[in-house]
Write a structure and sequence with these properties.
The structure is a homodimer. In chain A, about 85% of the residues lie in helices and about 0% in strands. In chain A, helix 4 runs parallel beside helix 6. Chain A is an all-alpha fold.
Chain lengths: ~210, ~210
């Protein structure tokens, strides 16, 4: 049986994984509200962001308590430091989903995005949601193969972000506010993916001991 | 006299402060290149970003070595964890200066910003540079009064970012690419300020032991 200290470490890791799952749900709902203009869905994302923030607070407090009281070494120390450094990245993922929802509410009842951009953002959303779910799985299972699938998804996201500016640059008929909104929203999705990669790469470091500098 | 361990801690903190200074220089040059269209200045910012990144790598390696070898406790532990968690924020500040310089190079020889926006971005730049310098000072001296001056500067930055969208929304005569560039650039300055605040708030935690959740 695991002793009390190692049980608390396990709980810490599971809390972080759970936090990834919460941001996947938040980004899924935020993207749906962006596609449909559903303000109640967007309001739910805004309200639930508090839960992600509270989870981060609890994780950081627990990690700091374990660090201060137990003087952990080697792998145990790496687990705590990694969780401590990852929680804020995951909270940031939640913030970015929140930003998407706020954009929906700011323009409501008008849609934020013109119709030709909607499928692009649904694709970015589905990649982001899948990445957050994968990162949660990496945190739980620390499977290096899964970490590599995230790199491919991140590259796809970067390409979608980059190519948006070609779409906006040529024959754009939807006005400046829509162009600005689309640019910033695209950036939110792209940054969400970066944070998912950073957390997964860090978690891999728990096993290897090689620092991930992402 | 300080023992070898505490000397290494002092060096770690000074490296972090030095990294803040590097990002202040980078953002100052990036902003000048944005105002003047000086491509060589922008190229210098891009080239020097490597130094910031290398400093982060060295800081994180040193911090992890100290954590693993010395089993530090209490304040010493807080110093190491804080430095470890701050270095990536400062690296991100460097990345954001780098993003500004890349925008200049992408449009060169055309200016990125239309003339009426230049003074706004010079103001954002000067606030950002001052904030990075202040954060470096907080890291060195851990003065809580300085931390509070950062909050005021951050509020000013947020207001400048927010009000840009009013400027772009009404009677904008400079086309869509300029509106998109200005929006993203404004976001870079605003995020730069957020990271400066986060690092300073963290550093304050070294003395108080109260976690900063920024």
């Amino acid at each position: 049986m695991r002793d009390s200290f190692h049980h608390r470490l396990d709980v810490l890791v599971l809390q972080l994984a759970r936090m990834c799952d919460l941001t996947a749900v938040a980004m899924s709902r935020a993207t749906d509200s962006l596609a449909t203009g559903d303000a109640r869905l967007a309001e739910g994302v805004v309200a639930d962001d508090v839960i992600v923030n509270q989870t981060r607070t609890r994780i950081e407090q627990d990690a700091q308590t374990l660090l201060a009281l137990q003087s952990p070494v080697a792998r145990d120390l790496r687990v705590i430091v990694t969780v401590l450094r990852s929680a804020e990245h995951v909270e940031r993922m939640g913030d970015l989903a929140h930003h998407v929802a706020l954009a929906v509410l700011r323009r409501h009842p008008d849609p934020v995005l013109p119709a030709p951009l909607r499928s692009r953002f649904q694709l970015m959303g589905s990649i982001a949601v899948r990445m957050a779910g994968t990162t949660g799985k990496v945190v739980r299972e620390r499977d290096p193969v899964l970490v590599r699938t995230l790199d491919a998804a991140d590259a796809e996201m970067n390409e979608l972000h980059r190519s948006l500016f070609q779409v906006i640059g040529h024959r754009w008929a939807f006005g400046i506010p829509a162009a600005v909104d689309a640019s910033l929203l695209s950036r939110y999705y792209e940054r969400f993916a970066d944070h998912a990669v950073a957390v997964a790469a860090r978690t891999a470091f728990i096993e290897t001991g090689t620092p991930a500098l992402i």
